[in-house]
């Protein structure tokens, strides 16, 4: 098993890889479990005459399928048990390399089973890739959809506030009011200075009264403009607070959508890159020499067992004769 991925490993993954536990090993475990599963046997039966292969009439009755001494010897469970005796999957934990060994009565049949297992394993891995890609992209797409809805809601709330208050940006309005207050305050200060000067130089000047009226008018206008800013609940200060809160929520929603879109693009790239696949280091080959049955070993084993049984019987017989005498 091989995995294509460019992501940075976490510290825990690096520790696991130090001890030979990596993503490739996990994927190899999945393939190994599949090859030795009932699903694999069912899939093989749809592609190969598996029962016929294991029931070769040229094989001895003790080795071929079904085993006559077992109950329900032709059932799927008995076939699965027989399959486990004939197919061996050995995995190198440190390298993630899996070796498949198939035993059959004909070399062509063993090769066919091995090739079919490789094809089935590759199809299973492809399904795993498709599902992983779909889950990754769908999760990121759901985040984007949620961010879009949040942005639409925030923009809608801001638009409703503007329509209700008949104002586009309270901050700009407040700046205009502040400029007006500054201008009025400057003019008022000039008028007050003129009044003070005229009182000192010409106390009886009739123009003093007119300037006093002008100063009072300017002060009244200044107070009115200040009331627009913070004089009541409908003042610009309250409107600015509400507007800035709604604008902040909209900005947050925009940033959330930007981040979600970036995550979606990253997820799509990772989905295309992070793929596991079956790599055949050595293709299934056609045996040119039978490895079973090991006749010499079997004969030697039978001789040893028979000798041991004979010795035990002889000891029992001799012991019985001694007790009789």
SSE blueprint:
Layout: E1 2-4, H1 11-18, H2 23-35, H3 38-47, H4 50-54, H5 76-86, E2 87-92, E3 97-102, H6 107-165, H7 170-201, H8 207-230, H9 236-273, E4 275-277, H10 295-324
Antiparallel strand pairs: 1-4, 2-3
Helix pairs in contact: 3-6, 6-9, 7-8, 7-9
Notable characteristics:
rod-shaped, 6% strand, two-stranded antiparallel ribbon, mainly alpha, single chain, 325 residues
Describe the structure.
It is a single chain. The chain has 325 residues and is mainly alpha-helical. The chain has a domain at 294-325. The protein has helices spanning 11-18, 23-35, 38-47, 50-54, 76-86, 107-165, 170-201, 207-230, 236-273, 295-324; strands at 2-4, 87-92, 97-102, 275-277. The strands form two sheets. A two-stranded antiparallel sheet has the order 1-4. Strands 2-3 form a two-stranded antiparallel ribbon. Strand 2 and strand 3 (97-102) form a beta hairpin. Mean pLDDT is 77; it is low at 3-23.
The low-confidence runs, each spanning 5 or more residues with pLDDT under 50, are 3-23
Order of helices and strands: EHHHHHEEHHHHEH
Biggest pleated sheet: 2 strands, antiparallel
Discrete helix count: 10
Percent helix? over 70%
Tally of strands: 4
C-alpha termini separation? 72 Å
General form: rod-shaped
Mean pLDDT: 77
User: In terms of structural class, how would the helical and strand content be classed?
Assistant: mainly alpha
Strand numbers in spatial order across the main sheet: 1-4
Strand residues, percent: 5-15%
Radius of gyration: 45 Å
């Amino acid at each position: 098993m091989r995995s294509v991925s460019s992501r940075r490993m976490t510290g825990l993954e690096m520790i696991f890889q130090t001890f030979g536990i990596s993503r490739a090993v996990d994927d190899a475990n999945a393939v190994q479990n599949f090859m030795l599963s009932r699903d694999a046997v069912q899939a093989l039966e749809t592609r190969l005459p598996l029962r016929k292969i294991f029931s070769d009439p040229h094989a001895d009755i003790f080795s071929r399928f079904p085993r006559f001494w077992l109950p329900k010897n032709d059932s799927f469970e008995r076939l699965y048990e027989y399959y486990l005796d004939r197919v061996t999957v050995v995995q190198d934990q440190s390298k993630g390399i899996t070796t498949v060994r198939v035993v059959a009565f004909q070399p062509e049949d063993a090769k066919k089973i091995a090739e079919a297992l490789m094809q089935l394993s590759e199809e299973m891995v492809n399904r795993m890739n498709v599902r992983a890609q779909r889950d990754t992209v769908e999760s990121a797409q759901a985040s984007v959809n949620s961010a879009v809805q949040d942005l639409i809601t925030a923009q809608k709330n801001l638009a409703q506030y503007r329509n209700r208050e008949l104002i586009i940006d309270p901050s700009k309005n407040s700046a205009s009011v502040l400029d007006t207050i500054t201008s009025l305050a400057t003019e008022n200060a000039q008028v007050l200075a003129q009044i003070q000067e005229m009182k000192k130089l010409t106390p009886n000047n009739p123009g003093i009264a007119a300037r006093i009226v002008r100063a009072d008018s300017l002060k009244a206008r200044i107070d009115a403009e200040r009331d627009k800013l913070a004089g009541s609940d409908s003042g610009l200060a309250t409107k600015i607070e509400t507007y800035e809160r709604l604008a902040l929520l909209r900005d947050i929603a925009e940033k959330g959508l930007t981040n979600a879109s970036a995550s979606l693009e990253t997820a799509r790239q990772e989905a295309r890159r992070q793929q596991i696949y079956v790599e055949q280091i050595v293709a299934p080959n056609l045996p040119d020499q039978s490895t079973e049955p090991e006749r010499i070993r079997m004969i030697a084993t039978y001789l040893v067992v028979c000798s041991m049984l004979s010795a035990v019987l002889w000891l029992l017989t001799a012991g019985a004769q001694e007790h009789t005498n």
